[in-house]
Design goal:
single chain; alpha+beta; 2 domains; ten-stranded mixed β-sheet; 30% strand; globular
Length: 293
């Protein structure tokens, strides 16, 4: 199933997609989940009801035509994350090589974890701010993982049962800020630096999260072109390691790292500038498109 948060008649609405491509609010299907976080938290109780509602829409879409959403704007699927996004740094073999030239410690470090403050996630087609103190604006297409129930001391073998679904994240980065502070929190956390979407696809529809093509285009030029099978630390390993001694709460978002092809790895770097269009896409999920302000 695919779930969206949309702005419709001035209100944020949680919606799902039918086979006809139309979006239907969960409320129209008789489901009470005002936000995506509420849906995830109550998924076990609402799952059967939602599946039944989608089946009715798919079986006889004409009967529900008047309930399909119109005149809406797609927002980030989780507009206001409950906590900071947990990120994996240099988690693809080829990106580790290109990053090592500018960040020495990545050559020998274990999995690098860092947090990304997200006051509000940037929407699909939202503008990426071009702050005057940032002279090296970069993009990073990443697979986002949404935790579906509290995870504590889980094994890699158990971790899959804790995943609600997946989305696309652009881990926008101010490289000069990131390097100046010798840690990544500030350079990754500026407002508007976490575009996310266009939807969350439930884990059952994705299947193996390590068999997905992942790409990024800048102004139509292919910059990143890889597959999630090249992750160093797998999704399940990350969930397990993070949950050792730390509760990964329901609704937690994990950004799993980016493959090679970022601007920082180019010689010379070709940083993002005003007017550039960035398209991040992941197989089975969709395309996340944003322009630089």
């Amino acid at each position: 199933m695919k779930f969206y948060t949309v702005l419709c008649t001035g209100k944020e609405v949680t919606a799902t997609a039918g086979k006809n491509g139309c979006l239907y609010s969960l409320k129209a299907l008789g489901v009470q989940a005002e936000t995506m976080n509420a849906l995830i938290e109550n998924w076990q109780n609402l799952c059967r009801q939602i599946k039944d509602g989608i089946e009715k829409v798919n079986t006889d879409p004409d009967a529900y035509a008047d309930q399909a959403l119109t005149d809406y704007k797609i927002l980030a699927p989780i507009p206001e994350p409950k906590q900071d996004v947990v990120c994996l740094g240099v988690n693809y073999h080829d990106h580790k090589k290109e990053a090592a030239a500018g960040i020495d410690f990545v050559k020998t470090a274990d999995t690098i974890y860092f947090a990304k403050r997200v006051n509000r996630a940037n929407d699909p087609e939202g503008l990426i701010p071009n702050y005057d103190f940032v002279d090296s604006l970069d993009y990073e297409a990443e697979l986002g993982v949404i935790i579906g129930k509290d995870a504590f001391h889980v094994t890699p073998e158990e971790a899959g049962a804790y995943i609600f679904g997946y989305t696309v994240i652009n881990d926008v980065s101010a490289r000069n800020v990131q390097k100046r502070h010798q840690q990544w929190y500030l350079g990754k956390s500026l407002d508007g630096y976490t575009p996310m979407g266009p939807c969350i696809v439930t884990a059952d529809e994705i299947g193996d999260p390590h068999a997905l093509d992942i790409r990024c285009y800048v102004n139509g030029e292919l910059r990143q072109n890889s597959n999630t099978k090249y992750m160093i630390t797998t999704v399940e390993e990350a969930i397990s390691e993070l949950s050792q001694g730390m509760t990964m709460q329901c609704g937690t978002i994990i950004a799993t790292g980016t493959p090679a092809g970022v601007a920082m790895g180019m010689n010379p770097p070709v940083w993002l500038k005003s007017g550039d269009k960035v398209c991040c896409e992941i197989e089975k999920i969709g395309v996340l498109e944003n322009s630089v302000e």
